[in-house]
Write a structure and sequence with these properties.
alpha/beta; 7-stranded mixed β-sheet; 9 helices
């Protein structure tokens, strides 16, 4: 594996390293949910370091990138991530973890890297149905109150921020763009990976059923595993320890 300083020269606005490790066994790339940001994974980074170094993806239009226009397509988000992650993939093994919208971005990025001969070692896809399981959704067409109602129903970490007028105005443009990306996403024909895939889902998620999550098996030629946790769409907020146990065990077995 190349020294981490070699890869760090390729850092872009897309990658955050909260706990750099000189020689990690693997790097776990984490892709946030709609409206989410890289800092959502700060605690995960601390918990897994130094054996696993977390690279948290920061999408345009939020936090320190809030001056940039948010992107409105999953493919656009994946292309930006792939451009930043390509050199990291060449420097050493990567695994991907995505939650909700992040699962879609992670999958598209993994497909692109696989075609380039840089497939991730493992792909963890959380809180999102497989691309082959389609629902009609229109959150992107709602007014601001409608989008906030969706957030409150799902129970995401941004819900409390919606009560602050200034913060709400900062978050809503990126959030609306994210919902546009999610609801207009259509994977390329035959899009699949060849690495192991682990799907994770809450047993009472209103946006993804267990069977819809199980359908991710159709999008890999590698091994597939499904893990079901008690909880809703953001089950992982209450089950951090259990989720990290799954991630750690699977990364160690892959190694």
């Amino acid at each position: 594996m190349s020294d981490v300083r070699t890869a760090s020269t390729t850092d872009t606005d897309w990658v955050r390293r909260y706990h750099p490790s000189a020689r990690p066994a693997v790097r776990l790339v984490c892709f946030p949910h709609a409206g989410g940001s890289a800092s959502y994974f700060h605690g995960v980074s601390a918990a897994l370091a130094p054996e696993v170094e977390v690279l948290a993806v920061q999408y345009p239009g939020r936090q320190d990138r809030r001056a940039e226009p948010p992107l409105r397509g999953i493919e656009e988000l994946a292309r930006g991530a792939v451009a930043a992650l390509g050199p990291w993939a060449e420097a050493g093994p990567l695994a991907f973890f995505g939650h909700s919208m992040g699962s879609m971005v992670a999958f598209e990025a993994a497909v692109s890297l696989t075609r380039a001969g840089l497939a991730p070692r493992l792909l963890f896809l959380s809180g999102r149905r497989a691309p082959s399981r389609v629902r009609e959704e229109n959150v992107r067409l709602r007014d601001d109150a409608g989008i906030m109602a969706e957030l409150r129903e799902l129970g995401g970490t941004e819900t409390a921020l919606m009560d602050d007028d200034e913060l709400r105005e900062m978050i809503l443009p990126a959030l609306r763009a994210d919902y546009h990306a999610v609801e207009t996403y259509g994977p390329r024909s035959g899009a699949a990976v060849d690495c192991p895939v682990v799907a994770l889902v809450g047993d009472s998620d209103p946006r993804t059923t267990v069977e819809e999550a199980r359908a991710w098996a159709d999008h890999t030629s590698g091994p597939f595993d499904l893990r079901v946790f008690p909880g809703g769409h953001f089950y992982l907020n209450e089950r951090v320890g259990a989720v990290l146990d799954v991630i750690g065990a699977r990364l160690r077995s892959a190694d």
